[in-house]
Amino acid sequence: MNPFQYRDSLLFAEDVNLQELANAYGTPCYVYSKGAIEHNYRAFASALQEWPTCICYAVKANSNLAVLSLLAKLGAGFDVVSIGELERVVRAGGDVSKVVFSGVAKRSDEIRRALVIGIHCFNIESTAELQRLDAITREMDIQANVSLRVNPDVNPTTHPYISTGLKENKFGVDIELALDIYQRIEQCSHLNAVGVDCHIGSQLLELAPFQTCFERIFGLIDQLNAIGIVLQHVDVGGGLGIRYTQDDQVPSHADYAQVLAPFMRDRKLELLIEPGRAIVGEAGLLLTRVEHIKNTSAKNFALVDAAMNDLLRPSLYSAWHEISAVQKSYGATATYDVVGPVCEAGDFLGKDRPLAIQEGSLLAIHAAGAYGFVMASNYNSRARAAEVLVEGDQAWLVRKRETLGQLFANEIIPD
Ligand SMILES: *Cc1c(COP(=O)(O)O)cnc(C)c1O
User: Which atom of ligand 1 is the closest one to the Cα of 239?
Assistant: First the structure.
């Protein structure tokens, strides 16, 4: 489902005219479609309905409270990686008994707070973390559910920065060590081994790496059963890709479920998945306005008011986002590098894009709903963008544009 469609020659978000939206809220501005987020969540839910399933949305993909609240109302669980994300889930009215806490370096204060809040499960990533959790739960005399994040040593063909399931990665524990570690967990009076988890990478467009990962993780579950350790859930992580380019072929939710089916069949296991990008990615875009056109002997530049501090993915991962003019024009098309005002040669949003634009034109940078605003920074003392959620013909400002006062509110000049 693409909620962003042209009507005549003007781009709409659901039934909202994006030109009017930009005039109302300014640019740069992230725009999310409520309908698309709901659709994407429900697509997972219905594809996986054969099994007891909890969809633990990966909060880091887009952590706006309005997005979390929307998913909470749909019954989602949440995968958090920091206490900040956990407090967001609480604030958004999420069900904390459906929260799993991932992350390689959980601080003691974060663990304590999560224990007090009463989350579903800690996804443990090392024996050092296990020792820390064991000590804290004993001291607080609170029981904790744990799952071991195993590293199945699978190479998903994705960008190396978003590949997480190889031996050389910092994530999880080597799957060969898992049996021993589960036996250690059994010795801990305040820890209950309830699950096993993995997450091999992000933006996966092929099912084969998932297949290999499932073979290994369900193989481990069998080995655990054989020594009398019976888990309640298997958490297969996130990672399902989305369509950034016309050529991206995305496996359907049903195809993904089919790969899982033979593994889940005849097991008394709850299934957890942790999708992030696949729920919010294509449900969002970034609106930006062309400040200047600059034609040089080598290139044409569209200098826009959004930059790498607003959307880091092109600079960080060489990610490709479709860019289109909000007002389709029948004027001359030229090829532009779409670049921001930040003082870095790596500050670009797209290169060599055919566009019919002029100064003042509005551009939409598509599929920016995941890992967009959440990675925004204040580099170059730029205030962070506004965020708007649309539903039908309604638009809600769900995050005000940051003010310059907020930029330096925490800074102190010594006497
Ligand atoms: C980032 C992350 C996810 C979500 O990944 P997507 O590719 O956005 O689905 C899920 N689980 C863990 C542990 C993660 O770190």
Answer: 7
**Which residue type is seen at 88?**
R
Q: Cβ of 184: how many Cβ atoms within 10 Å?
A: 16
> How many Cα neighbours within 13 Å face the side chain of 411?
7
Length of the chain equals: 415
pLDDT score for 167: 74
- Counting runs of H as helices and runs of E as strands, what totals does the chain give? 12, 21
- Give the residue, out of 78, 79, 205, with the most ligand 1 atoms within 8 A of its beta carbon, to mutate for a pocket test: 79
In short, whether 204's Cβ falls inside 6 Å of ligand 1 is: no
Give the residue from 197, 217, 218, 200 showing the smallest Cα distance to 209: 200
**Beta-bridge mates of residue 78:** 57, 99
- 3 within ligand 1 shell (Cβ under 6 A): no
Q: What is the pLDDT of residue 162?
A: 65
Residue from 121, 188, 213, 343 carrying the catalytic annotation:
343
Q: What single string gives the DSSP state of each residue in 239-298?
A: -B----STT--PPPHHHHHHHHHHHHTT---EEEE--SHHHHGGGEEEEEEEEEEEE-SS
Q: Pairing state of beta strands 394-399 and 4-7?
A: unpaired
Tell me the per-residue pLDDT of 258-303, one tens digit each, with 9 for 90 and over: 999 999 998 999 999 999 999 999 999 999 999 999 999 999 999 9
CB-CB contact of 152 with 212 (8 Å): yes
Q: Check pocket membership of 239 for ligand 1, CB cut-off 6 A.
A: yes
Protein residue with least CA distance to atom 3, ligand 1: 238
Q: How far apart, in whole angstroms, are the C-alpha atoms of residue 10 and residue 18?
A: 8
* 107-133 pLDDT per residue, tens: 999 999 999 999 999 999 999 999 999
Q: What is the DSSP letter of 48?
A: T
* Residues of the chain predicted below pLDDT 50: none
Annotated catalytic, 343? yes
pLDDT value for 411: 97
C-alpha torsion sign, points 160, 165, 167, 168 = positive
Show the domains of the chain with their CATH numbers.
Answer: 4-32+281-407 (2.40.37.10), 103-273 (3.20.20.10)
What is the distance in A from the centroid of ligand 1 to the CA of 280? 12
Atom of ligand 1 nearest to the CA of 149: 13
- Atom in ligand 1 nearest the alpha carbon of residue 371: 8
Give the pLDDT of residue 191: 98
Q: Are strands 77-80 and 99-101 parallel, antiparallel or unpaired?
A: parallel
C-beta neighbour count of 142 within 10 angstroms: 13
